[in-house]
Design a protein that fits this description.
The chain is flat. The protein is built from one helix and 19 strands. The protein is mostly beta strands and 239 residues long.
Length: 239
């Protein structure tokens, strides 16, 4: 009888052991982190083309027309931010669209610069296209003013090493390819009016003093007497 009881006790212990809380000892599975969102890629601009006269679009009146801006689709992109800058007054139009084109009303007979920024949901990363410049065709215009010059050296806002001479450099372009000269205004006033000189080349030497901040702009003139003014560029000479 004792032998039978021992067998029963052993069997009971075996059942208790097999049904115990052993499952509580199993490791908790680690959650799989979400896949990081891919950064959008830069779009390629199609129309208006770079350094051209934009002669397509719907004329609204003598002052405005509706132009369809187009670009190629970019990878990992959900929407596009179109930025169009008026080069005469430096104002910018911005619109966001989910497709690869946008109809935008702009001024006629006016130079513009435009680019597209690619955006993606779930990430703050963006990608910018190259910049294109164009003239939006105006009524009766046969010869266009040059595009405003763009700074090359010194970079805007730069502090350059102490020196007494600086070679100011810029780039100029014109649809009609008839740029005749550049006139440079230069000085320590925030809106320079003092002529530095006139040149046919996109560069000019300037005399500077250590510790001063200088401001300069370029007036580009073509063979028909049309002119354009660049933005004001500035740099500082180190002490």
């Amino acid at each position: 009888m004792k032998y039978v009881c021992k067998i029963a006790l052993i069997a009971l212990l075996a059942v208790v052991s097999s049904c115990g809380g052993g499952g509580d000892d199993s490791p908790t599975p680690t959650p799989t982190p979400p896949e990081p969102m891919a950064a959008p890629k830069a779009a390629t601009l199609v129309f208006p083309e770079n350094n051209t006269e934009c002669n397509e679009g719907v004329v609204i009146d003598d002052e405005k027309s509706r132009v369809t801006f187009r670009w190629n689709p970019s990878e990992d992109t959900d929407s596009y931010e179109v930025n169009i800058r008026n080069l005469n007054n430096n104002t910018t139009l911005t619109t966001t669209v989910p497709v690869e084109q946008a109809e935008i009303i702009i001024e006629r007979g006016t130079p513009y610069e435009w680019l597209v920024v690619s955006l993606a949901n779930g990430t703050d990363e963006t990608a910018s296209s190259s910049k294109f410049k164009f003239y939006n065709q105006g009524p009766g215009i046969e010869n266009y003013a040059p595009f405003p010059a763009e700074v090359v050296n010194p970079k805007r806002g730069a502090t350059i090493a102490r020196t007494t001479n600086v070679n100011l450099q810029w780039t100029g372009s014109d649809i009609d390819e008839d740029i005749e000269e550049y006139r440079v205004l230069f000085g320590t006033e925030t809106s320079p009016t003092e002529p530095l000189g006139t040149t046919v080349e996109p560069s000019l030497e300037a005399t500077v003093v250590a510790g001063e901040t200088y401001y300069w702009r370029v007036i580009t003139a073509d063979s028909q007497g049309n002119t354009s003014q660049s933005e004001i560029f500035e740099f500082r000479v180190a002490d």
